[in-house]
Each structure stands twice: as C-alpha cells, then as structure tokens.
Amino acid sequence: MSTYTQILYQVVFGSKDHIPFLTTENEYILLGYIAGVLRKQSCHSYIVGGASNHIHIITHLHPTVALASIVKDIKLSSHKMMLENAKLFSHFPGWQVGYSAFTYHISAKENLIRYVENQREHHKVYSFKDELIQLLKNIQWI
To answer: What integer pLDDT is reported at residue 141 of this predicted model?
Structure first.
C-alpha cells in the first residue's frame, strides 16, 4: 500500500523584530524562491505570500518531509539568497527564530488561498502581531 496524506498547513514566520523588508520589487523573487524550495522537497505549495515583514505558506508536505526540517531549509536558503541579492533585500534583518504552523481540513484550502492573497489589505487594519495572536487563539480569520 502507498502512503496518502491530506494535511493542509499554514506556516507563518517573520523577520527579526518584525522589521519591514518586503517591497513590490523584491517580494516575487522571495516568494517564488520559497515555492521552489518546497517543490524541490516534493511539497506542494498552494500559495506563498505575505506582507512587509512576514510570510504565509499554504502547503501540503510530502509524507517523508518533517515540518521543522522544511521550515529550517526555507529560512536558511532564503536568508542566503537574500544576502546574495543584498541590493534588493537591503532592509532584511534576518528571520525570527521561531515559526507558527496550523493545520486545516482540505475544505479550507480556497479560503486560505484568498486569505494569503489579501495580506496587503488585511495588514492595513491588523498588525502581524495581532494577526498571529488571533491565529494562536484559533479565532478564524479565514
């Protein structure tokens, strides 16, 4: 028998001290890079997005990939990439030490994708800190 999983993750992490570093000219490079890291590990990213100082990833992990390992890979390799492209990422202070991850039923996928697509609008009203507190309290933003 083969291995089948249906675990939908939202992974969220930010920059050190929540310092803004994403701009309209650099975000697509970083978000595409992170999607590529997931793809190389046989993980499916539905969307990688964020706003100014943090990233949201909606993904399924390959059954052989541990969450902590893939987050570590994403943070280490993207940090290196941003250092190599210092002109584009001049305000990047490094990633925060931790991360948050939430699991959802597959039926939440489309709502999660829309939620991540609307991060810029969302953060005109709510700070990253407020958003994370609500996610941790399990209050539905989605």
So the answer is: 53
What is the rounded distance in angstroms from the CA atom of residue 48 to the CA atom of residue 9? 12
Answer yes or no: are the C-beta atoms of 46 and 113 closer than 8 Å.
yes
Give the whole-angstrom CA distance, residue 47 versus residue 43: 12
Residue in 51, 65, 57 with CA at minimum distance from that of residue 12: 57
**Closest C-alpha to 141, from 130, 27, 91:** 130
3-state secondary structure of 137: coil
> Which token pair is 16?
């050190």
Report yes or no: 13 and 99 within 8 Å, Cβ to Cβ. Answer: yes
What tokens does 54 get?
């943090």
The span from the CA of 69 to the CA of 1, in Å, is 26
Residue partners of 69: CB distance under 8 A and separation at least 6 = none
Strand pairing category for 8-14 and 44-51: unpaired
Low-confidence ranges of the chain (pLDDT < 70): 1, 138-142
pTM of the model: 0.88
Model confidence over 16-52: pLDDT tens digits? Answer: 999 999 999 999 999 999 999 999 999 999 999 998 9
